[in-house]
Amino acid sequence: MPYVVESCVDKSLYLIAAAALAATILWSPPAETQRSRLVIDEDRVSAWIEDSQSALKAPVLAVGIVRPDEDLFLEVFGPAEVDSRFLIGPLSQSVTAMALLLVMEDHEELTLESPASTWVDDVPSTITIGHLLRHESGLQAPHGFSPWTATDASLKHLLQEATWNPPGAVEPQDLNYAILGAVIEAVAGEPYAAIVAERIFEPLGMENSSATSELAQARLVEGHQYYFGFPAAREEPAFNPVIVPARFVTMSPRDMSTWLRLFLNEGRVDDEQVIPSEIVETFREEGLRSSGATATFTSAMALADDEDIGAFVFANTNSWNASGPTRILDGVLASLAMEDPPRGSNFEFLVRIFLGFLLLIAVINCLYEFLRWLQIRSFKLNRREAVVALVAFGLGAAAVAAVWLLYMPLPVLHATQPDLALALVLFATLIPLSRLFTGFMKTFRSDAKSVTKYFGF
Predict the structure, then answer these.
(1) pLDDT, tens digit, for every residue of 156-182?
(2) Where are the beta strands (DSSP E) in 61-112?
(3) Rounded to an integer, what distance in angstroms lies between the CA atom of residue 299 and that of residue 301?
């Protein structure tokens, strides 16, 4: 029997929670449509998704459209099944938010106004549970932090290294939900994965979902990363397990349909109140929309509450800012309103291809200059050529430093976008080297002309 919650918490608590969840999972509904128009032309939708999949170069796409009582559309395009598991990235935060509210119902000492420092050390006493839910804690992760680089760092260490600005401004940080995961464990007295399984996945019959950091146990679809426009299979890089509540929950397409249908049915499963309706109401009043990525997966989901419709897209590739699945999701919602979905864009593919083409030119040019230099094997540079070579190396180093400091540290970039990291390093190396070999040649020729002129040859 599903876990049935019998107690009922003050509704006002959950109305406050609605605002807390809004910063992470906001959804602006599409234009109003009549229910009678919500008819799925499966052939048309499938054809458009296949075109989008081709543009995205995603080996596997999973797309679902659900109503309270049925799956209007649930298909997997590629070598996977509806029960295959995907990493759902920041969509994990909706699961953590639900788990927190369920634990909050059983423990009066835990409220949205409670200081998080009551259960987690090294959090300022001014930071409340509500601040963390809303991503308004003012927390700034240590520079260079990512789940894939600080794999062994404890939450305590990360919080000691973090910067805390005054709370209020919305700034999404994985560490906010890592702290909430620790709060859930401290209050409930069980591991986060066990709590989520017991209170959410098992009651809902979500048999192919988990919140464990052991991906080998999760039976994942094979993930991919792009290498200059083309996907290559790659396992999800090792990540810090404390970030699971923020980014690394796994779920199958069938289970995601169940998850969205929970909100459409006000927390009921087979006419049993599995999740208190007050909790579900917090999600429905604010709407539900989220998207994001891990190193090898992207995902997007939305709840269009005015039409009792939920939709999601999973892809087993890493895409810039989850742009691919998000665009497909918007197209699916547009098709429900009988609007023409946007054409599948291959902009990211073209940019990566162009980057690879430029890199190939740089490699060929450097190799050409190197072969020319082998004919003379001179290491002499005149002053002008030495300055030019030094400037070229300086610009290359400055480009790497700028990306590292202003955008993303190189190890993080390599973990999430390896072709971009490779291109940056090679451009910063090959162009100066090519210029150095050219400088050797010009100096040699200049000296040869001077000798010829001196002897009158």
Answers:
(1) 999 999 999 999 888 889 999 999 999
(2) 61-67, 70-77, 86-87
(3) 7
